[in-house]
Amino acid sequence: MSEASARRKPNDQPALLDTELEHLPPELRWREWIGRVEAVIFAASEPVPREVLSRVVGKSCNLDLVIDDIRAELAGRPYELVSVAGGWQHRTKKVFGDAINVAFGTVAGQGTKELSQSEALVLMCIAYFQPITRGELSSFFGKEVSRDLIGVLRAQDLIASGPRSPQPGAPYTYVTTKNFLSQFGLDTLRQLPDFEALEDAGLLSKEKLLAGDILAGLVGGEGEDDLVEDQVP
Predict the structure, then answer these.
(1) Spatial contact of 162 and 174, defined as CB atoms under 8 Å apart
(2) Is residue 203 exposed (0-12), middle (13-18) or buried (19+ Cβ within 10 Å)?
(3) pLDDT band per the 50, 70, 90 thresholds, residue 35
(4) Closest CA to 54 of 87, 31, 9
(5) Can 17-95 and 117-225 be said to share one CATH topology?
(6) Any idea where the domains of the chain sit in the sequence?
(7) Which GO terms describe its biological process (predicted)?
């Protein structure tokens, strides 16, 4: 135990962090703020929101400019600072993915179960039409969406229960999570591509979607049999 720790009483609070740093010249103060923000983001296991970063810098500090400076300094590095799931996070640049996989003997996506086509389709519907009930999902697909399929998406923390629906029986609705945003590199749901962009990319037919035939509207919509609820004899 250090001498300072020995002198500290059990109920003493740690010294407050000096966030204003008024004793430092402007340039050094800015460098210290940059260092603190980057250290907090680096130490975090999930995206760090603005309100957390604001605890370690002064009231006059423009966090957006701090982030811009950090990104500029990382321009030549194999990792970058990305805005995702309502916060900021360090991530390895995608171009180095193959090198990392070879170095550690892993395959792309290891640690996260790859979604089947049926699971991906249901997740897409939840993302665009949330909050949505399982019954509403089933009406989209024209087949019962199984509880097991919903369970897979919940187990990966891609969806969660939303508010109760005003429908008779007040069924649960489903919504996407922050982890969904993080996994797909989105900051907010507003960054989801609109239907026009998906149609231009050849991923769906808006005409068939508007007609209510979502499986026919999605190009390559095989695998829909997995949606069906298993029937107990």
Answers:
(1) yes
(2) middle
(3) very high
(4) 87
(5) yes
(6) 17-95, 117-225
(7) cell division; chromosome separation
Paired strand residues for 159: 176
Whole-angstrom distance, CA of residue 181 vs CA of residue 87:
11
* Percent of the chain topping pLDDT 70: 73
Global pTM reads 0.57
Cis peptide before 14 (omega within 30 of 0): no
What is the fold of 117-225? Arc Repressor Mutant, subunit A (1.10.10)
H or E stretch including 138?
helix 134-141
Q: Return the closest-CA partner of residue 39 out of 12, 58, 3, 66.
A: 66
Cβ count within 10 A of residue 61 = 21
Closest CA to 185 of 47, 42, 43: 47
Each residue's pLDDT tens digit, 1-33: 445 444 545 444 445 899 999 999 999 999 999
What is the rounded CA–CA span in Å between residue 229 and residue 89? 39
Residue-wise DSSP of 9-34 = -TTPPPPPP--S-TTS-HHHHHHHHH
